[in-house]
Each structure stands twice: as structure tokens, then as C-alpha cells.
Amino acid sequence: MEFTFLGTSAGTPTRSRNVTALALSHSGHKPWYLVDCGEGTQHQLLQDKLKEDGIEPGPDWGELQKGINVTLEDGRLLRSHDYTQIPRVARRLIVAGDNDDPTLLAGACKGSHVLIHEATYTQDVADRVGP
Question: What b-and-e string marks burial along 52-70, b requiring 16 or more CB atoms within 10 Å of the CB?
Fold first, then answer.
């Protein structure tokens, strides 16, 4: 597995950067999964996939998202499973953040395959721990 941190604007998007998200890459049907993403991130990435395939977002995108295959006017068939995630055997991943006491996660982490812990801390915490 490989993790890629996306976005660099924490909880507030800017014109050039979206909110943070995490992409999980692995071998299998889909090249990556989007984990712990801010509002709108998933839809942006799905639209990018459609644009890569020459499809502008619109009503067809909504049908694909619902699991319905779409035949375009030019005769191309878009299969929903190419744009949506198929069910898989679950692996346990804990993504945590904004937590001053990671020991609080001990119970949740039991039996997990991966733990990712990121945090944005306050000035008070920075003053306590120093540069």
C-alpha cells in the first residue's frame, strides 16, 4: 500500500488548493481509494476521471455515480464500475488527527492494518513544545 497526501490547505480551500485528503494506492481493480477527504474532493476527482475520458460532467455523470451504465450519443458505452468503487474485503485503516493525546486511539487501533495520524495544532501547543 502507498499513501499520498493531497491538498495543502488544511480545512480551508483556496483558489489553487483544495482541502486536504489522502489517497491510498494498492494493486487491484481501482488504482487508488480516496480516504479522509474534505467536502467536494471526491466529486472533483471523479470529474477529472470523466474529463480524462473526454466526458464533461453532467447528467451522465450522475447516472454513472448511481451505478447505471450510460451509452453516449457517439455510441460509446460508459460502464459504471469504471467510475465507482466495487465492494471488497475490508482492511482496517485508522486516520486520526487534531488530537493532543494519541493514547486515546489505543482501543481503536487494535486489529488495524495501518494508522495514519496527522494533526494541526494550536499556538498554545506550539508554545508548550517549542520550535
Answer: eeebeeeebbeebeeeeeb
Chain segment 19-74, per-residue pLDDT in tens: 777 788 876 666 777 776 666 665 555 666 778 888 877 888 778 877 789 999 99
Query: Strand 93-96 and strand 2-6: pairing?
Result: unpaired
Q: Is residue 13 part of a domain?
A: no
Q: Does residue 109 belong to any structural domain of this protein?
A: yes
Q: Which three cell numbers stand for residue 63?
A: 447516472
Average pLDDT, the chain: 76
Q: How far apart are the C-alpha atoms of 101 and 125, rounded to whole Å? A: 12
Backbone angles phi, psi at 8, to 5 degrees: -140, 20
User: Has residue 25 been placed in a domain?
Assistant: no
Residues whose CB is less than 8 angstroms from the CB of residue 131 and which lie 6 or more positions away in sequence, other chains included = none
Long-range contacts of 106-111 (CB under 8 A, 24+ apart): none
Enclosing domain of residue 112 = 89-131
* Number of domains comprising the chain: 1
